[in-house]
Amino acid sequence: MDIQGAAPASREIDGSGLPMDQAQALVLDELRALTERAEPFAAILLMPAPPEGRTPAASASGTSTADRVRTLKLIRPGLTALCRGLAFVAPADIPAERAEAIHSGEQLWGCPTMATQDVTAARAWAGARVGG
After folding, report:
1. What digits encode the pLDDT tens for the residues 34-92?
2. Residues 6 or more apart from 3 whose CB is under 8 A from it?
3. Contact 59, 66 (CB under 8 A)
4. Of 15, 9, 82, 8, which Cα lies nearest the Cα of 47?
5. Any residues with CB less than 8 A from the CB of 38 and at least 6 apart, and which?
6. How far apart are the first and last CA of the chain?
7. Is 100 helix (H, G, I), strand (E, B) or coil?
8. Is 60 exceeded by the pLDDT of residue 27?
9. How many other CB atoms sit within 10 Å of the CB of residue 84?
10. What's the CA gap between 68 and 126, in Å, rounded?
11. pLDDT of residue 9
12. Interatomic CA distance for residues 120 and 132, integer angstroms
């Protein structure tokens, strides 16, 4: 198969069954891997329901908010160059700061974003972004 002529693809990243900090780390790891492939893509990000109470600064896996911010800063140039869009599928009751991060789009992520509760709509949007 000739990869060089391959059309952009959409990729689904499912963190919906994970604790929030692990889901965020998974999303960043997967996005980093996608940017390292150096091929255009769009991603559908299935996010979990918000945790009860406050989110700790560091998770059981050892990743902190600061680590996730550093990772995002490192991969943002690749997202800007290669990502055609990130479609977040999240429950309606997400915390305000998470909703703000999703809707900040290019300022935060470096590429267009959309948020929905409907995975079918997210898949359609991502498919349209990659021309499929």
Report:
1. 999 999 999 999 998 876 654 444 444 456 788 888 999 999 999 999 999 999 998 87
2. 39
3. no
4. 15
5. 78, 82
6. 19
7. helix
8. yes
9. 19
10. 24
11. 86
12. 14
Question: Residues 98-130, buried b or exposed e (16+ Cβ, 10 A)?
Answer: beebbeebeebbbbebbbbeeeeebbebbbebb
The token pair at 79 is: 């997202």
Closest to 76 in 3D by CA, of 128, 118, 111, 100: 111
d(C-alpha 79, C-alpha 84), whole Å: 8
Note the pTM of the prediction, 2 decimals.
0.80
Cα distances (angstroms) measured from residue 94 to each of 39, 79, 102: 31, 24, 10
Q: How far apart are CA 120 and CA 117, in angstroms?
A: 9
Q: For the chain, what's the residue count?
A: 132
At residue 34, the pLDDT reads 95
